[in-house]
Design goal:
homodimer, 244 residues, alpha/beta, five-stranded parallel sheet, 13 strands, elongated
């Protein structure tokens, strides 16, 4: 049995951000599995079967990928960004827990440029000092736990990156997150909304928390909040290395 | 004047982790500037001047790069990993603060695979849920501030990535960091030491905090500490998406 499973990050959108090792592994694959818009980024070719699936079926998708690899297929699960950051790698290992017979499968994770790194690069260097990454989606955890982590991250004076800040199904929570940040960090703290980062639709908007409104974010937005030391220089935003 | 400055991330070591856009910008450069081992990764060619410099001269290096670009050169400052994560981007913007005459220079930051993402991928998906990145070097900040942030990160139950965990000039502090983590997270918490990640010298070592010793880390090591939910499956370590 020569099957394998690679969990690969396609980066945030721009093709020149896909690493050569990810391009190479896709060229060897028999099957590519992932959320519809990510699989749409893979060029069709003879001998390659594409398996686009809908959102919120991550565990089913992971089981399917493992079973194909167990049958001898060369399978790539594609994620946007980095597969280890709020993406498919954790779902695959979750699915693996239930199947000890698959524990010796050849599984590799190929890192990618995660959205916050591309967003930070576009803005300057707002994550240039200690920072944290928080998923604001409450699909899999209670909102109260997210609020509590936001407060603690602010008190630790991390710069912060938020993934999945706001969706149609939960439009009000991000307003609450902004209220918490204003209370903890004050009105002058810088916040950057980076939408469709690294694509031709990219927009960047840096304001203070006083001027931030919930509609500045949607599901395609990564939000970066500065630490107390984060500031502007010219048209850039950055956090000095010497920040405490 | 057609000079420009690109601050580019070479990734953690493996050539197949260098993004195509970084390879392309280096091909157009007249000057490449950076710490000696990173400049050593750039192939010499006619028309390209290499400027390797020693560690701990980041601000001088940044000023030099800006001045060359201001004179019309096409300059690439190279960092390992991602330039915006404990690397050269913040130093360039720091240097820019003192020179308003350079504020309109064409400066871009090109993201890269930062060490913690490659380390996490090699281990499985330990950063699969909310996490933070902390620089343990006290070159530019007091150690007491680092200790305090460690405590708060543990109480927020972030998974954690530590850069620059230990050096010859400060061998004792990492032992103190481990003591803090044991007190805050308990002895069973998983910790992964990833050394020379993505290179042919790569080693990975996952133990519990009870079994962790300071000599497991050096300057080439990225340290990943799990959250309360982080666990093993087969030969992998991962943090479930449903962690609170």
């Amino acid at each position: 049995m020569s099957g394998w499973l690679a969990i690969a990050g396609l980066g945030p959108g721009r093709d020149t951000l896909v690493t050569p090792e990810v391009t190479a592994v896709i060229a060897e694959a028999t099957d590519v599995i992932g959320y519809i818009p990510y699989v749409a980024r893979i060029a069709p070719r003879a001998g390659l079967k594409l398996h686009p699936t809908d959102n919120r079926v991550e565990l089913d998708r992971a089981q399917h990928a493992l079973s194909l690899a167990a049958e001898g297929a060369r399978v790539v699960v594609v994620s946007s960004g980095d597969p280890g950051v709020f993406a498919m790698a954790a779902a695959v290992f979750e699915a693996l827990e239930d199947r000890p017979d698959w524990h010796l499968l050849d599984i590799t994770v190929l890192p990618g440029i995660t959205a916050m790194l591309a967003a930070a690069a576009a803005a300057g260097a707002p994550l240039g000092h200690d920072f944290c990454a928080i998923n604001l989606s409450d699909n899999l955890k209670p909102w109260a736990a997210i609020e509590q982590r936001l407060r603690m991250a602010a008190r630790a004076d991390f710069a912060m990156a938020f993934y999945n800040p706001r969706s149609k199904s939960r439009p009000h929570q991000f307003a609450e997150a902004l209220d918490i940040l204003r209370a903890e960090c004050g009105p002058e703290r810088l916040i950057t909304f980076a939408r469709s980062v690294s694509t031709s639709d990219q927009t960047l908007n840096t304001v203070t928390l006083a001027g931030a409104t919930p509609d500045m974010a949607d599901m395609r937005t990564v939000v970066l909040v500065g630490s107390a030391a984060t500031r502007r220089v010219g048209r850039y935003v950055y956090t000095p290395r010497s920040a405490v």
